[in-house]
């Protein structure tokens, strides 16, 4: 059955549409933290559709909200007043930490980042953008143009002039050997030097924790230190919270809050988890920035009633059940368990992350060279034992990405860690 579907897939879909596994998997249904494939095999899901199934598969509150809203009206566009959209925007504006916030809904994180770039470049009247090395911001033409990860950047053509800044990866690069304080100071000095060689940029866009890059991050406070420099030049700060938002990091509701000493970002983008699988993305910005466009605009599908109903139900469940706290508690246990495993494996260079956003970087033993073949083998071995995880990384794809739904239980964390431990042992 899967072979036949794969053959049909290859015949009508692009060759560059990535699939996991030599024998690709068809997921047919899910419940809680588990999914099932077309052959009836059950898996513990530690990737959540790329960090998108944030609370749980088939969460009753979300499925009920979607069903009830679909029975009334699914869609009308932004040309008409939309109560669920207004209600969700009110909640997100309040949670964002941005004063006088305005919210615009899109259908994806790519489109959210594209909108943020439109706002920033229009507001600042500059098409120069600062981005982080090893970053990923989406699949659109402009988002690819600011992506600092060669594996996900199919063209160098772009409507933007992009300049890449040091700091998104703590344990690699020219400053890796420095202390955290010296690392931040060196990155700030590099930023100051860079700004002396270019026209004033519109914005710095940065993921607080780099997702596709393998869950890498700078020391806490780097972006606060950057912000002082940016503010002196009038440059905006865009926090790409597509993967880090909504409490996934455990310690904070937004990833930028680990860098909050200089205040909130000017613009925040979000997507993925808020819809729990429904197509929801968006941008939060100060009113003066959001309102800077001088032409009409709408969104045909952004903010449509059925996705807003899902977002409202999902956000309410997240807050009422303190899933951020659960991510902190269970994620802390899981990362320590994986570090204990890694201590016995010479091919694990680092276990990093926070909350339920954990990266396990694999290298060839005794070197710093990436080991993408082993990463693929670990993915396959984990699947064979009933666990789904992801992968990512810069220079080469050799980091395992562990990001379960935020309702993960301690028992499920232990089960998943044991499977991953066996997968690592079997591939040494």
Computed Rg: 21 Å
Distance between the ends = 32 Å
Lateral strand order in the biggest sheet? 4-10-9-8-7-5-6
What is the β-strand count? 15
Largest sheet: 7 strands, mixed
Name the shape in a single word. Answer: globular
Q: Can you give the helix content as a percent range?
A: 25-40%
Q: What class do helices, strands and sheet pairing give?
A: alpha/beta
**Into which percentage range does the β-strand content fall?**
15-25%
User: How many helical elements?
Assistant: 13
How much is the average pLDDT?
96
Unreliable spans? none
Task: Describe this entry's structure for a reader.
With 428 residues, the protein is an alpha/beta fold. Helices cover 38% and strands 16% of the residues. It is built from 13 helices and 15 strands. A 7-stranded mixed beta sheet has the order 4-10-9-8-7-5-6, with helices on both faces. Strands 1-2-3-13 form a 4-stranded mixed beta sheet. Helix 6 links the parallel strand 5 (128-132) and strand 6 (161-165). The longest helix is centred in the last third of the chain and has 20 residues, at 323-342. The radius of gyration is 21 Å and the shape is globular.
């Amino acid at each position: 059955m899967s072979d036949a579907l794969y053959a049909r897939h290859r015949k009508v879909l692009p060759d560059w549409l990535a699939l996991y596994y030599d024998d690709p998997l068809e997921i047919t249904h899910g419940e809680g933290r588990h999914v099932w494939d077309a052959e009836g095999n059950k898996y513990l899901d530690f990737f959540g559709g790329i960090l998108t199934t944030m609370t749980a598969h088939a969460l009753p509150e979300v499925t009920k909200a979607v069903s009830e809203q679909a029975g009334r009206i699914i869609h009308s566009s932004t040309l008409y007043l939309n109560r669920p959209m207004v209600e969700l925007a009110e909640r997100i504006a309040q949670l964002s930490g941005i004063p006088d916030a305005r919210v615009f809904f899109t259908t994806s994180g790519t489109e959210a980042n594209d909108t943020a770039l439109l706002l920033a470049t229009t507001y600042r009247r500059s098409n120069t953008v600062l981005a982080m090395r090893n970053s990923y911001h989406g699949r659109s033409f402009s988002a690819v143009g600011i992506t600092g990860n060669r594996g996900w950047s199919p063209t160098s053509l772009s409507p933007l002039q992009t300049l890449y800044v040091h700091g998104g990866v703590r344990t690699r690069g020219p400053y890796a050997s420095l202390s955290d304080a010296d690392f931040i100071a060196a990155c700030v000095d590099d930023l100051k030097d860079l700004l002396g060689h270019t026209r004033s940029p519109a914005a710095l866009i940065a993921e607080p924790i780099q997702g596709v890059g393998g869950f890498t991050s700078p020391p806490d406070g780097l972006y606060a230190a950057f912000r002082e420099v940016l503010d002196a030049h009038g440059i905006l700060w865009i926090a790409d919270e597509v993967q880090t938002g909504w409490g996934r990091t455990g310690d904070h509701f937004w990833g930028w809050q680990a860098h909050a000493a200089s205040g909130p970002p000017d613009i925040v983008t979000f997507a993925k988890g808020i819809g729990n699988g429904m197509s929801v993305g968006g941008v939060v910005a100060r009113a003066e920035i959001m309102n800077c466009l001088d032409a009409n605009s709408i969104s045909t599908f952004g903010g449509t009633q059925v996705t807003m109903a899902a977002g409202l139900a999902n956000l309410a469940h997240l807050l009422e059940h303190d899933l951020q706290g659960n991510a902190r508690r269970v994620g802390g246990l899981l990362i320590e368990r994986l570090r204990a495993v890694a201590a016995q494996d010479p091919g694990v260079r680092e276990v990093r992350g926070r909350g339920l956003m954990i990266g396990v970087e694999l290298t060839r033993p005794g070197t710093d060279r990436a080991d993408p073949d082993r990463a693929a083998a670990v993915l396959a071995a984990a699947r064979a034992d009933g666990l789904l995880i992801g992968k990512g990384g810069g220079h080469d794809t050799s980091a395992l990405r562990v990001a379960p739904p935020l309702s993960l239980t301690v028992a499920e964390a232990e089960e998943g860690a044991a499977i991953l431990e066996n997968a690592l042992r079997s591939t040494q």
